Amino acid sequence: MVVFKLRFPWKGKKVEETPLEEEEKEVKVDFDRLIYEKIVSLRADYRILESYPLVDPWARALILERKVDGSLLYFVDEIPLTTEERQLYEKVMDILYWELEPPPSGEDPREHFKKQVSKIIRKFRLRFSSSIHPGISWQKIEYYINRDSIEYGPITPLMKDPAIEDISCDGVGRPIYVWHSRYESIPTNIRFDSDEELDDLVVKLAHKAGKHVSVAFPIIDAILPEGHRLAATYKREVSRDGSTFTIRKFKDKPLSIINLVLGGTVSSLLAAYFWKILEFNMTGLIMGVTGAGKTTLLNALATLLRPTIKIVTIEDTPELRLTHENWVQLYSRPSYGFEGGMGEISLYDLVRVSLRYRPDVVIVGEVRGEEAKVLFQAIATGHGGITTIHAEHIDAAVKRLTSPPMEIPKGYIPLVNFAIAIKRVRIPIEPDVYRVERRVTEVWEIQDYDQYILVSRWDPAMKSHNLMLEDSILLPRIAEMTGTSLDAVFEDIERREKIIRWMTYKRLTSYQDVGRVITEYYRRPSKIMSMVERELPRYESYT
Ligand SMILES: Nc1ncnc2c1ncn2[C@@H]1O[C@H](COP(=O)(O)OP(=O)(O)OP(=O)(O)O)[C@@H](O)[C@H]1O
Ligand SMILES: [Mg+2]
User: Fold this and answer.
1) Confidence of residue 25 (pLDDT cuts 50, 70, 90)
2) Separation of 78 CA from ligand 2 center, angstroms?
3) Ligand 1 centroid to 99 CA: how many Å?
């Protein structure tokens, strides 16, 4: 049997570790020369706008602008394997296939696999050290083995780029497109030229997500181990040009409200206003198109909720991350039966069960269907609630809410206290040069069905958020609820605005930092305020 032929006589013997320093030096030189040559040839047609490492030193990104028409290209520059290295790569992959042992229980399978790859490569190196050319870069071979076995194959460098938000493949022979945070949607130089290659990657993606894909079940909607959202189709069953996939990348660290202030999505005053109204569990709706930044904003706002309240979050894919101790995270499950929707747990089921948890606030990732009705019933019975909806404007959002399948009675609309529109906007940097950024473009307070009060508007000409808080109906309500004057409410918003500004100067940007400062403000407001008052002028004197 082949399996025995491939087994090696030294299996089980103690293997000496071999030093790698010499190779590292050689690799650096190799890399520079290759990149240099490639750049020289690319320069004839392209201008290089930017270059940065993706997997140092093996792969880097080049953002290229074509000279003739100004079109952009995302060029993944990977150091190729030489013919000899490729042969070794294939041999080691073969051995791996036969020699791989399952991880002992409790060990992370990825870590286990990585260790095994290194071990097998070391064995292999030792065995062939005398007959192999000294210029071989084993580190490079190891990079490709890891790339093609435990990572994401040819799209691995794209998965490693934090500036890439989305990766999509429309079929065989088409370039992979990425959504880049600084350049929007751009094609890459990565392309699958054969059905087999692309089908294999889709099967691999499905397996990584713990799912099955086949001709009988050619659609996958799943979550990858790192939390990325995967949608894919298999072969030519439901997609004309072969398998397709889209990966929405999940950020390791969610953007906090401070990140959003620093990036200009909201102003510090607008953030302070949200903080104030969320303290009173006001219900809100965030609207925007796909990829506008709804979930990100929802997460950033949720960290502003009082740290001691009970929150239940309900999502299709678990994207939200909160610092609240009393937080229950629920997510839906597609059916796993072969007939009908057996075992399916929908958002609707989850919203219903969430009410048994007696939450102060229910957060639903996105409302699309009948779960909206239950959410509105929850709000009507005094729970707070925040959700997002796919719509561009308040009128369109209300129309969607009141039409099938959501069918919220019009009388329930004023139960929503505030509505936020978030958009991608083009910010001019120089004449004819734009950068795409996210902005909260409008904030309304809802007085009645079809009566919306605009309290904040993004002014593109002035590049600023204009707040009309004097028109607010929620702030007088808060004053009444707390038995204070409206002036006192405004003063508190001003204090919070200072805290937010102070956090931006101090770069307290993680969502955990935000959680800590908020908790501190509720516990010992005067202590944190005196620190802010003392330190803020010092920071501002530098700007
Ligand atoms: N304010 C922001 N500043 C910078 N990047 C942002 C901002 N908001 C979102 N992003 C990035 O944009 C991508 C999409 O964001 P997000 O998932 O929040 O959008 P969405 O509107 O919820 O999309 P979908 O409609 O698909 O659910 C993410 O990679 C996220 O990190
Ligand atoms: Mg979303």
Assistant:
1) very low
2) 32
3) 42
